[in-house]
């Protein structure tokens, strides 16, 4: 069983930056594709980014492409989401996600139905 714990959320002004972290435990981290989803009030949960178990493949939603960067440190069992150019539309609870990734397409983790593990979420609020 994989446990995911997010941190790094908070309140930031529009145009600012935040870096989210997700610490994983309970599994072989370097075998898991990792990713981020978010859910804004009154809206459906949406995918944000995904990264392959090796770190060599990354995917982003169109709404964050060019502003957000996903990365991972397999030595630290941690995945990151660097968020730049934040705007109020980025306000949401951000969830770290994971699934076993060896031999499967990383893009599949952009679909919530393929997520095997979810973190509890961290709140990001962007003020205008």
Structural class by helix and strand composition: mainly beta
Poorly predicted segments = none
Q: Termini distance?
A: 40 Å
Radius of gyration: 13 Å
Order of helices and strands: EEEEEEEEEEE
Q: How many individual β-strands? A: 11
The helical percent reads under 10%
What is the number of helices?
A: 0
Proportion of beta-strand residues: over 45%
Shape: globular
Overall mean pLDDT? 96
Main β sheet profile? 7 strands, mixed
Walk me through the topology.
Elements: E1 3-7, E2 10-13, E3 18-25, E4 32-39, E5 46-51, E6 58-60, E7 68-73, E8 78-83, E9 92-100, E10 117-118, E11 122-127
Parallel strand pairs: 2-11
Antiparallel strand pairs: 1-3, 3-8, 4-5, 4-9, 5-6, 7-8, 9-10, 9-11
Structure description:
With 128 residues, the chain is mostly beta strands. The protein is built from no helices and 11 strands. The strands form 2 sheets. Strands 2, 4, 5, 6, 9, 10 and 11 form a 7-stranded mixed beta sheet that branches. The protein has a 4-stranded antiparallel beta sheet with strand order 1-3-8-7, with no helix packed on it. The termini are far apart. The model has no long low-confidence stretch (mean pLDDT 96).
């Amino acid at each position: 069983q994989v446990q995911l714990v997010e941190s790094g959320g908070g309140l930031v002004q529009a145009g600012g930056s935040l870096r989210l972290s997700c610490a994983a435990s309970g599994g072989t981290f370097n075998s898991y594709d990792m990713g981020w989803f978010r859910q804004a009030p009154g809206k459906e949960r949406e995918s944000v980014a995904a990264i392959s178990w090796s770190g060599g493949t990354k995917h982003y939603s169109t709404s964050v492409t060019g502003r957000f960067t996903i990365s991972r440190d397999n030595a630290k069992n941690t995945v990151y989401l660097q968020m730049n150019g934040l705007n109020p539309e980025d306000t949401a609870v951000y969830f770290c996600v994971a699934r076993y990734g060896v031999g499967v397409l990383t893009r599949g983790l952009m679909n919530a139905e393929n997520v095997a593990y979810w973190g509890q979420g961290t709140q990001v609020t962007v003020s205008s």
